Structure formats: structure tokens, C-alpha cells
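Q: Make up one entry.
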Amino acid sequence: KNNMSISRFGDGELINFIYTNLGISNPLFEEKFNMLIKKELIEILGNRNKCSNLLIAIYPCLTKEDYKKSLKYDKNQETIERLNYCFLNFFKNQSYFHDYIGNAFCFRRIRCAEEEKLSHRAKVKKYFSSKKILVITSLNQAEVENTELFKEYEIYNINSSNSFPSIDKIEENAKHIFDEGNFDMIVCSAGPVASLLANRFSKKGIIFWDLGSFINRI
């Protein structure tokens, strides 16, 4: 509605970077721990360096309705409890809460009923339908096409894992492509790097959506 950018803070960002030094390592994706990632994530989450036009979509259950939903759909309750504990303890030490807090349910494949997921997907697809989009991703053309999310778009390919060492170059190249191609917005799938880029590009006045692993979740 307000053409805001979106930065996702899920278990990877909150647990593996902010509260521990584990980094992310699974069969689908890897991002080695780096203190600079942690610092920038904390600055955004703590509202110390957050663009006012950035919506933070966060997975911990912030309402009773969300918690009941997690009990029904999420198979790993230990992760849910840990996310809530980490998130709420983080804000105990903050003097204010965000002006805008979303949730990441609509970007999680098994976190809600199929009808709700399809409803979210339809809204996202409708929003994208009138936009020329720069897609930052490791996916190839066929994989992006198969999502059926975008009508007019161009792909900027990055590494499938460990993108942070190249984040400044990614930012520079994406900005150049965006300006030259007369795009309306950027979407990105790159783990914590996408979370950081969403804030950086918002400060440039560019709409940027961190979609997570959107090929598996939307």
C-alpha cells in the first residue's frame, strides 16, 4: 500500500548472526559468520540505522494468533521458542520499538494454510505485475520464470552462497543496472545480505524487497 521496502529477519538472521556466531550452513544455503554482518543487522533491528521507509518482516510470533499458527504449522517448536526469546530479549534493552513491524508468514512455504499462502502470493504477484523489476538472485532464467511472479524483469546473478564479501560490489552493480534499465524496484534472494541491501537501497529511495528463498516459499 505504501510502497515500502521489506527486510526479512528470520531464524538465520536472529539466531545465527545476532545471538550466536554460527552463521548459516545448510544444504540449500551458506553464509559464513562475519561480525560486520552482525553489526549491521543489529543497527537495523535496533532502529539505529534503519531507513524510515523499510518494513521489517520478522518471523517470531508477535501475537497470540501468530503463535497459534506456529503451533499448528511449524514442525520445529524449539526454533520458534528460541526466536521469540531472542527477539523479545533484544527489545528489552531498546528504548523504543519499530514504527513498522511485519511478519514473514507470507514468505514461508509451510507456515500457514494453503488458502492463506495463495492469497498472499496473489497479492504479491498483482503488486509485481505493474512493476519493472530487477531480480538479484543465484537462480537461472528458467527457475525465475517458473515462479511465475514477475511480468517484466531482468536478472542480476550473484553467488548462491557467501555473498557478503561481495556486498559492496553487488550494491554498486545493482544500482548501475537499476539506473540504466529504468526499473521500478529490486527483489533479492541472498540470505542476510538481502536483509542488509534492503536497508541500503531504501536509503537511496529505491524500493527493495528481500524475498528470502522465494522459489521454495511463495
